[in-house]
Amino acid sequence: MKPIENFKFQAIQELYPNVVTVRGDTAFDENENEVAIDETAVESKKEELQTAEANAITEKETLKASAKAKLIAGEALTEDEANTIVL
After folding, report:
1. What does the CA dihedral 47, 50, 52, 54 come to, rounded to 10 degrees?
2. 26-53 tens-digit pLDDT
3. N or C end of the chain, less CB within 10 A?
4. Pick from 13, 81, 75: nearest CA to 41
5. pLDDT, tens only, 11-30
6. For the purposes of burial, counting CB atoms within 10 Å of the CB of 26, is it exposed (0-12), middle (13-18) or buried (19 or more)?
7. Burial level of 12, CB count in 10 A (0-12/13-18/19+)?
8. Helices 39-73 & 4-15, crossing angle to 10 degrees?
9. Whether the Cβ atoms of residue 84 and residue 60 lie closer than 8 Å to each other
10. CA pair distance 12, 14, nearest whole angstrom
11. Cα separation, 16 vs 64, whole angstroms
């Protein structure tokens, strides 16, 4: 999983597309103008992004486990299961 700072920066960029850099708790646009951000909205978006990544990781692990079980049993894999196998 990504470091929390990466999720916060991604959340800020998704909510405020004009932000190109963040220093501390201050966001700036391409002209180094300070951009006011809503910390509550950023925190909510950050949590949403973290949950989405955790769900994607869990889904991939579930597909891998399913693929392994089917291979052991000699059953056909779905395309998504096959995509999880690294050869």
Report:
1. -140
2. 999 999 999 999 999 999 999 999 999 9
3. C
4. 13
5. 999 999 999 999 988 999 99
6. exposed
7. buried
8. 120
9. yes
10. 5
11. 36
* CA gap 52, 28 in Å, rounded: 26
- Quote the tokens at residue 29: 């646009």
Whether residue 27 contacts residue 12, with contact meaning beta carbons closer than 8 Å, is answered with: yes
Residue 38 in tokens: 């809503």
Question: Cβ distance 13 to 19 under 8 Å?
Answer: yes
Spell out the residues 6+ positions from residue 6 whose beta carbon is closer than 8 angstroms to its own.
none
Question: Residue type for 49, please?
Answer: L
User: Phi and psi of 2, rounded to 5°?
Assistant: -70, 155
How far apart, in whole angstroms, are the C-alpha atoms of residue 44 and residue 29?
A: 22
Beta bridge partners of 21: 28
Q: How many CA atoms lie within 13 A of 29 on its CB side?
A: 10
